[in-house]
Amino acid sequence: MIETILDNDLYKFTMQQAVHRLYPKARVRYELTNRGQTPFPEGFDRLIEDRVAKMAGLSLTRDERLWLEKACPYFTKAYLDYLAVFRFDPDQVEISQQGPRLSVRVDGIWSRTILWEVPLMAIISETYFEVTAPEILSRQAIRERNQGKAKMMADAGLTFADFGTRRRFSVTNHAHFLEDVLALDHHSMAGTSNVHFARMYGIAPVGTMAHEWIMFHGALTDYPAANAAAMDAWLDVYPDVLGIALTDTFTTNNFLKAFNSDRSNRLSGVRHDSGDPETFTQTILAHYREMGIDPATKAIVFSDGLNVERAIKIHRFCRGEVKDSYGMGTNLTNDVGVAPLNIVIKLSWVQPEPDMDGRPTVKLSDDPGKHTGDPGELRYCQKVLGL
């Protein structure tokens, strides 16, 4: 099901390099949240355990490393040496089930556990549909649906990337989507977050950071300083590339307080992942203008549960005032006639240094329904940020 270490999203590798360099002793915990309350069939935990165990045999091949050196020149030799000896450790993953409720927890050194999240979610999703054996659309119907979406986006003039690894129907269906789009004479797909498929199909790997990067800095520095610390640490590792910042870990309004002129100029843009996208666009455009920056020189990547129609609507709203692009996930890789799982695996606890106390991590989204973390810690976070 996961047959290569590169069957993962780029931002896990970019963050792993940053963690390995800056926070090599940090310990973390990740936990599964089943937002959709999907009941899992009896014995599902044992199936997941078996597939997780098989990941211990994965390693970076020589050909994969040579490709990474060319496709991702921001990866240093020191990091690629680290990745070459990296192995998944299934003992870091605790899987259990009580009735229909599945529990998944990952514990360990951050740089050694950071690659688990995406393949774990992909395994859970694919295994669920394999076990429940739902009736799906025919291959021809799926191809027509895939190509129809790509044509609509190309005709609308918007650029999109595949962000669909985590909740895909299957690895095969994921590959079929990419093949269907690439078979078109004209499409506007700029790349994929999946590093393996980027290599397989000769397209660009895309991604920068995830919420966990900012969540960690919330625990390291406390919440008022988290966004600034996270951006500065990122710029330390990636001063000239991968400059898309996430805004909504502790609300966009709080992020903008730290998004000063220097950071606004140095970073190439921002990613929208919660809240109203039109309001967000207006807020970001106004911010850049206040900083004396032409918004047309900056980027907004929209990635909040998009479908094609929603992306086209946002693109028309942007009217060329900013470099807008669209990261689309489940709607591309799990649109086969089933209801996709609504699951996430998020950072839940960190110990930044061995001599520091561990503490819970939280995410205070622009959409209250996406808040995650310990309720008491969430209340503390809201209090200290004045929210």
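the 2nd protein, sequnce then structure:
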Amino acid sequence: MQFSDFSSPAFFDNPYPLYEKIRAAGPILQVAPNMFVTGRFEIIDAVLRDSRMGKSYLQSVAARYGADATAQPVFQSLSRTLLMMNPPAHTRLRALLMKTFNARGIEKLTAIVEATTHELLERVGSRAEFDLVSDYAFPLPVQIICRLLDVPVADAIALGGAASQLAAAFDLAPLDETGLRAADEGALMLERYFHGVIEQRRAQPGDDLISAMLSVEDEGSRLTDEEVVSNAVLLFFAGHETTSNMIGNMMLALFRHPQQMEALKGDPKLLPRAIAECMRYDNSVQLLARTALEDVTLGDASLARGSVVFLLIGSANRDPAAFPAPDTLDFARGANTPSLSFGAGIHYCLGARLAALELDVAMRSLLARFPEIRPVDLDGLVWHRRNNLRGVTSLRVHTR
């Protein structure tokens, strides 16, 4: 097993055969010195909840790119986000960000999500054919996060492109020089942009997440400007591609399982179950990573302090030890299916509530507006060349 196994065209098109081999080969497999992968649900679930397994982001960067690379803008930017921190720094920052999110009640979030969804579907109008990705799934979450941050929706395309460049740095396989340069440019562009937004909000606070981050306080602690910028960037890219790709993946799963599609159309109350099952079946987030903060024994495997373990979430969600007939899309599993689609433990997805709301409104509205929706072609799909995030670049559909 080596990094190149996760960057082949066959893997990008369909990673599940490789995941099956990885699960069968053992609980934890080595891919490089002090670097391992695991695809088993039981182990990944345990690692995500184990306080001895934390974050050492720059160490994993050094292992893949060399020590000098840790100074590059994209890696420095990501290292300052909540996503890459351990307690107590993580505990403090998450408490502040949770207060920020909770300040916007579910009613406010729902109103923004529904209004944005309606606008995008109105633009599609009565067209007989459109691209579900570029016309709907891609702009929907990016416009929602723009509205939550109160930045111009007109900036969404540029910001979304920069977020995509930055997010590529999460890939398990190292980026080439061109990809790394693009990731640096994306990180710098987003940081410059949000530093400018902070200056505006200090002069004129509003009813938005950035204003809330600047004012929120928890037991006398407040966010610094750098923390606000880094986590505004995190909110932007984490809430952008994950949801847009999941909308596409869910529609593909339904197109390929027409009986489930018809069942969902016939009973919209099935939607929460359908979303949970589609996220288990083919989630947009495929990969997480943890570092052993001390010597750790996981099952029969011993990990030395500093070992980095890449957790194949996509594999865990298809593990037959956790799910009967895991390669079958089955809405009977229920909305509380114990998948790892939003992670687990102290790093459980901060935006899970918003993501679930976006998926619910997006899918409910799309199927109600276009009950006869069907794919133009399922044979010529092009998947993103990413091993941490799964989705197609385009999905053309007929509406009637």
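The longest strand covers residues 287-292. The domain at 3-398 is CATH 1.10.630.10 (Cytochrome p450).
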